[in-house]
Amino acid sequence: MRNYLLLTPGPLSTAQTVREAMLQDWCTWDKDYNEGIVTPIRQSLLKLAKVDDADYTTVLLQGSGTYCVEATLGATVKPTDKLLIIANGAYGKRMATIASYYELNYELVSYHEAEPVTPEVVRRALEAHKDITHFAMVHCETTTGILNQLEEVSRVVKEYPVTFIVDAMSSFGGIPIDVKAYGIDFLISSANKCIQGVPGFGFIIASRKKLLECKGVARSLSLDIYDQWEVMEKGKGKWRFTSPTHVVRAFYQALLDLEQEGGVEVRHQRYQENNTILIEGMQELGFTPLLPAEIQSPIISSFLYPSSDFNFQSFYESLKAKGFVIYPGKISDAETFRIGNIGDVYPEDMRRLISCIREILE
Ligand SMILES: *Cc1c(COP(=O)(O)O)cnc(C)c1O
Model pTM? Predict the structure, then answer.
């Protein structure tokens, strides 16, 4: 059934159950779809985020993850507000690109890709810019696989009167996040990362109070998360504009599979085990991970080229011929490639990968 196993940061290899769930068509007007699929999805997302319906709500939005990041920034930061973005990779910087398209009043504090966003860094930035009203960061920077210290940072952010926006695209569902305890106001993720659905929409877990303040703020109709939410809320799961029905149905299945697996904690352990096998195996083969173990996420890892004449393209092709697809690197000052371990991928797959790499190198 599979052409290859995707060891990439998403889209990723999905389970057959998820792919099979797409073999039916759904009416977006009918309650079987809205109340039977969309509403339970919204409820499960709140459960995964450890929040309840009284304080938090969800907005599902068509498009890839970036659409949801853009929608959130564009609907929350008013012309009189000021946004602080702390970035240590491409996705953090992309938030600044969005801010500049929207001509938001923003401050970008940029760090090296191998340096984590820590509470100290955040405190320094918030102290230096006292007029900040919104603070945005990425949890797991997929650029390198670095895991920023979200919980520790959240304690600092709580001391300031700012709206807290987190791009948890590549971590939500795969790393436990206590959204309420961390005081996150807007958490953004998408269907095709750790929940292991197929691509086509993203979602925002939002503080009800803060979302209500977004009414009339959005500069884009399609990306107006307040309007999208209002239609979904009043219509009991009705999407504004065409809903990606097959993708939504597949996501519903992916959520059932996640529960079946044992929930986020159990999935986190699997990813962690995949990652340990990967890193230890690669080190035995002579590869050096870009990041030290303390800041390495269990989501994706970057490895340095083993030598200056290393040919990534031929390495990639040889691995693909053996059934594994990996990813090029994305950082500015070192030659790297990436191997992801999220998706319908298990420890035995990682062991098989390592032995295939050994064969290629021989
Ligand atoms: C995948 C990802 C995104 C969104 O990327 P899309 O290509 O738009 O889906 C944003 N931030 C992070 C950290 C990601 O890993």
Answer: 0.98
